[in-house]
Amino acid sequence: LYKSVKKISSKKEYMKVMPREIKKVLVANRGEIATRIIRACKELGIKTVAIYSEADAKSIYVKKADEAYLIPGDPIQAYLNYFRIVDLAKQTKCDAIHPGYGFLSENPEFAEYCVKQGIIFIGPKPEHIALFGDKMAAKKKMRELGVSILPGSDEPISDLKKAKEIASEIGYPVILKAAYGGGGRGMRIVRSESEFETLFQSAYNEAKKFFGKGDVFIEKYVENPRHIEIQIMADKYGNVVHLGERDCSIQRRHQKIVEIARSPSLDEEVKKELYRTSVKAMFKVGYENVGTIEYLVDENNNFYFIEMNTRLQVEHTVTEMVTGIDIVQKMIEIAEGKKLPFLQEDISMRGYAIEFRVNAEDPAKNFAPSVGLITSYHSPGGPGVRVDAAVYKDYVIPPYYDSMIAKLSVWALTWQDVVNRARRALDEFIVRGVPTNLPLLRAIVRDEDFINGKFTTKYIDEKLPTFN
Ligand code: ADP
């Protein structure tokens, strides 16, 4: 796998990677996030180059970019073949590449290759992408930095006997996670030794199917936690700030579907402690650009680091709404070598924002991805509403990619107002032709516990079991 970055040897190599003004960016992604990045560039007066697969020829972002190039062949490889992508960036005279999320965004070899080829990678340093991309190494590092973590195995495990031993050492319940994967795949909660073998096998098989390697790691399972994450921003000069927290507890099958800034329920002292801990850790590792540190907060307000994402997150929109800071533009400016234009005390968080992931999934078919023609489409608008969409009427959803077709984000000054606004905006949203998860989202904003800001990661399981 990834070896630590080689030291830059010659002056010529150094000059190639010197921070410099970014005038043109290649967007190495697709869908709504490609549009989001293009918008950020346009506002900064930066030219954009889009790439697209044959399946994405009719996507909106392709039309929004200044230039767009087809990458023929496999529709997924189009966004993963980084030799080709970097070549294209050079040919089209781009200064930098923005990777978005998914695809190449957390590939340290790609980030390093960009640098070596004289292209600015808009994101963290390759060594940090590598470190935090390995969940076990990340936990170890964070523990060294004084952040609490959950007890668990410190290496990938493929052997049943060994796994069982570790599980009984940790004490049930435990959670199994794919060592080389994410997105909730390969996760199993094991409540007692008697069910360990069956669940270990199914976790192993699922991980093998999705990630090529079945190895898992084991962690103490937290009952009824809240998923709270801290948005970090850091420049090249050691200035680190946080942009507050997001509560991403509303999940289906361990995958986020609703994200909220600021948390309506978390204790103010706990928030402050999370901010302090996160900023300190990132300062100590010399982190750069943006990142998100994810924690589980238990019923007694103890918090534990679970993982860090070294990229722009899907749910960055809600942080933008409460802080007024354009995170994508700041990523570009940091990569250019600009200093953060604010201190921590200049950043204020106002009101509440909620993001809803509108997925093309069929609630009647266990939320299987739905593909095909969108026959009717109307997105909500009005005060405090933001839509980051990838689709339109007559668009055909291809079968190769993520099922998220739009993100609806709403903002209001109080929690009660934002929930009312969310209900109104979700009701305005019309997508016909393909089934979506809109019925689930509409049920959430009508549920009393949600309205009262009371939810943990078990929320959908317990409150809306018909949707699980
Ligand atoms: P992934 O990278 O697959 O998204 P994460 O480690 O970020 O996996 O966890 C995703 C979700 O799974 C969390 O938000 C939480 O709901 C649940 N989860 C993960 N670890 C634990 C744990 N130790 N105890 C309870 N729930 C957990």
UniProtKB/TrEMBL annotation:
SMART domains: Biotin_carb_C
Matching InterPro entries: ACC_Biotin_Carboxylase, Acetyl_CoA_COase_biotin_COase, ATP-grasp, BC-like_N, Biotin_carboxylation_dom, Biotin_COase_C, CPAse_ATP-bd, PreATP-grasp_dom_sf
One GO molecular-function entry: pyruvate carboxylase activity
Any Pfam family matching the protein: CPSase_L_D2
Coiled coil: none
Domain of life: Bacteria
Entry's EC annotation: 6.4.1.1
Domain spans labelled Biotin carboxylation: 21-465
Ranges of residues in domain ATP-grasp: 139-336
Record's keyword terms, sorted: ATP-binding, Biotin, Ligase, Magnesium, Nucleotide-binding, Pyruvate
UniProt-recorded name of the protein: Pyruvate carboxylase
UniProt organism field: Sulfurihydrogenibium yellowstonense SS-5
Origin organism lineage: Bacteria, Pseudomonadati, Aquificota, Aquificia, Aquificales
